[in-house]
Amino acid sequence: MSDSYCNFNCFFSSPMSKNLFVEQILSGDRRALELFVDENKPKVFKICLGYVQNENDATDLTQEVFIKALERLHQYKGDSKLSTWLIRIAINLSLNFLRDNKKRLLHTSLDNIKNTAATSNEPHKAEIKRLVRKAIYQLPEKQREVFILSFYLDMSYADIGDSAGLSISSVESLLFRARKNLRNYLQSFYEELII
Question: What kind of architecture, by CATH, is found in domain 10-100?
């Protein structure tokens, strides 16, 4: 790989290089596009999975996010980090997916919980992960958004604030309430399971 493709971070050392990287993608530079997708795909997938709770749906949504990002890349103004802009697209598409598929997702989740409770007193690791994702899905939208960015992406409060358009104190408050709500939801499920 030549020096102009040293790594993803080298494109973001200055505002000028951000614009150069975007211009390279817009001009059809395949290697710049591959670098953009490769560096951001795991992050986008985690966001989508945090919202939709299903790996197949999250994989499909991840592809949609990059398609939408490429369709709108010419609109990127550089006001924020490119990754922040991409995260916003991932969140919006995930929320749209949830709105469009709410009934299907709710019935599937309830059926899975009933089946787990009926077959085992001790859920397996994969089932616990699924239950945590289900609990995250139950959170109010803004709590869910900041929790996913914090938990799945380990973002700082400042970066979460930038991505979500919130102050740091709002992020702290939403995370506190999200954790409290998750604790209550998971504790009630655990109590129902052992009764």
Answer: Orthogonal Bundle (1.10)
**So where are the chain's domains?**
10-100, 102-195
Query: Residues of the chain whose pLDDT is less than 50?
Result: 1-6, 9-16, 106-107, 109-111, 113-114, 116-118, 121, 123, 195
Q: How many angstroms separate the CA atoms of 45 and 61, rounded? A: 8
CA–CA separation, 75 and 60 (whole Å): 23
Instruction: Report the C-alpha gap between 125 and 97 in whole angstroms.
Output: 26
Prediction pTM value: 0.67
102-195 topology per CATH: Arc Repressor Mutant, subunit A (1.10.10)
Q: What pLDDT is recorded for position 117?
A: 45
How many residues belong to the chain?
A: 195
What confidence score (pLDDT) does residue 22 get? 85
What's the rounded Cα separation, in Å, for the pair 184 and 133? Answer: 14
| 117 contacts 142 by C-beta, under 8 angstroms | no
